[in-house]
Amino acid sequence: MNRLPVTIISGYLGAGKTTLINRLLAEDHGLKLTVIVNDFGAINIDDALIQETAGSTIALTNGCACCTMGDDLSAALREVLNRADRPDHLVIEASGISDPVAIANSVLNENELSYGGIITLVDAENAGTLLSDPLIAPQAEQQIRAADLVIVSKCDDMNEAVSALLTKAGARTPTVLNGSPVAELLFDVVPLPKGRAVTAHPAYTTWQHRSNDVLDRRALGDKLAGRPAGLYRMKGFVLTTGGAYELHVVGRQVEAKRCEAEETLLVGLGPADRISREEVEAWWVA
């Protein structure tokens, strides 16, 4: 059975996690999502989307579901895994004061789950105050440093002051999504190319590479370690002198396993304001 990918949504109180989750539940992405939240009361789900409410779970008409975490994350994860009809993707809302790395470690320790990234939201209007408060800043910076992707909320464009603050705090890939579809970036919904170009929303850069080139197996690790920071997701197959490998890259996390493949076939995705197709191609062919 395929492992269930898990994405963690993090961010300090008021950063916009609830808004992002509502967008994910309402978007027409074709995925069956299960979202584990801290409090139903904070998630204002459109009544038209609700099919059924039973105990700690709300079932939606689009196949998605929303349930509460309770006091035991492991129990909540096991409950999802034990369902006869598993979701396509699991989203966990971290509380505003929790450490997303601890949640990620719970995911990595479960053989039936796969890591889908930590997304941290930062409120542009209050970022300066938050990151200068001696009591709050250490925790906020921890959430930012842990993130594979930082989404800046409550602004149309990221100004230089906010960008400088996030860079100082250790943000890897800060971006502004505005009205762009969220699922394309957060989840693995961009397919491998099958004879035609991969397309995505203009807010995102997509890259694909197809060749019969064989990479030195010893150089693969260094190649991946040097990937552009704005390349948030990459997947596919690569031929090496040590055989073919299947690659899955999410932010800082890289997974490579032996497989059977007849060609190198890769697709990548990142925010268009952080990376270009030419930059990714130059990195890969160098």
UniProtKB/TrEMBL annotation:
InterPro entries linked: CobW-like_C, CobW/HypB/UreG_nucleotide-bd, P-loop_NTPase, Zinc-reg_GTPase_activator
Residue ranges of domain CobW/HypB/UreG nucleotide-binding in the record: 5-164
CDD domains xrefs: CobW-like
Cellular compartments per GO CC: cytoplasm
One Pfam family cited in the UniProt record for this chain: cobW
Role, per record: Zinc chaperone that directly transfers zinc cofactor to target proteins, thereby activating them. Zinc is transferred from the CXCC motif in the GTPase domain to the zinc binding site in target proteins in a process requiring GTP hydrolysis.
Protein name: Cobalamin biosynthesis protein CobW
Organism: Leisingera methylohalidivorans DSM 14336
